[in-house]
Each structure stands twice: as structure tokens, then as C-alpha cells.
Design brief:
By secondary structure, this protein is α/β, with parallel strands linked by helices. It has a single domain, classed as Rossmann fold, CATH 3.40.50. Helices cover 38% and strands 25% of the residues. Strands 2-1-3-4-5-6-7-8 form an eight-stranded mixed beta sheet, sandwiched between helices. The C terminus is likely disordered.
């Protein structure tokens, strides 16, 4: 965790998602810096400059698929938490993202309000690298059903 609180980068082309995530993050005192980009190129540039603790990443970006950005982020900074937040609710896409290092896979329609708690859990003091996500609305924890 960065001194002075968490730095979070959102890479998503939806202005609505930007507003909602920003509003959610502003409510949490642990999050001190928020950066946002609407495409992969700007997002990766901001990532290199800001060195965030967590990245919230959409998969369907206008210039490059989010999976490619995920690979670049994890390739250059494996400890950076990456939370995929997408409309794509396919189990095989979730598996692909987790295989390439995503720490969490959340579906916008059902999990948008869980973004802050996912950041807190994954960037917390324990930093247990616990992967969480959902498939078809069911919570999953490393492929096992959460209790």
C-alpha cells in the first residue's frame, strides 16, 4: 500500500461507470488518489506514471482488449491488484483473466457496488492475494463457492 493511502486507477470507456466508481471510492478514507482513463492507451500511460495500488479494468475498451492491458500490468508490476469489472459474464473469460493474474473478476450488472470492498480486501494489510469473483451471480473464491 502506498504511504498516504491507496491509489486506484480506473480504465473504462463508460462515463457513467467513471462517475459511479469515483463516488463509491470517495466514500472510503483508505482511498486517497483516484485516476481514470477511457481507453487502454491512456490507461496504461497513467498506470506507468501513477503506479497505483489497484487497477479497476474493463475488458471492452475502444482501442485494445482489457486482457492485453491486464497482461502488461501484471508483466511490469505483478503485485499491483487488478480487478476486472466488465459486462462480460462468461465463465471462460473469467478463467482467462484469472489465469493471467486478475485478482478479482466482477460483473458490472451484479457486482458494481462491491468494487470498494474488493479493493479493500485485496490491498489490505494481509494482502493474501485471495482471488474473488462471480459467475452468473454466484460468489466464487478461487473457483470454490463462498460461504
Amino acid at each position: 500500500m502506498s504511504s498516504g493511502g491507496l491509489k486506484v486507477l480506473l480504465i473504462d470507456d463508460s462515463a457513467v461507470i467513471h462517475r459511479i466508481v469515483k463516488r463509491l471510492l470517495k466514500r472510503d478514507s483508505r482511498i486517497q488518489h483516484f485516476f481514470a482513463a477511457a481507453n487502454a492507451a491512456d490507461g496504461y500511460s497513467l498506470f506507468k506514471i501513477s503506479r497505483p495500488d489497484a487497477v479497476v479494468l474493463d475488458l471492452n475498451l475502444p482501442d485494445l482488449h482489457g486482457l492485453e492491458i491486464l497482461k502488461r500490468i501484471k508483466g511490469s508490476s505483478p503485485r499491483c491488484v487488478v480487478i476486472v469489472l466488465t459486462n462480460c459474464d462468461l465463465p471462460e473469460m473469467r478463467a482467462e483473466c484469472l489465469r493471467h493474474g486478475a485478482d478479482s473478476f466482477l460483473v458490472k450488472e451484479s457486482d458494481l457496488l462491491r468494487v470498494v470492498s474488493a479493493i479493500a480486501a485485496l490491498c489490505g494489510p494481509a494482502r493474501g492475494r485471495k482471488r474473488v469473483g462471480t459467475i452468473n451471480g454466484a460468489n466464487h473464491d478461487n473457483g470454490r463457492r463462498s460461504r
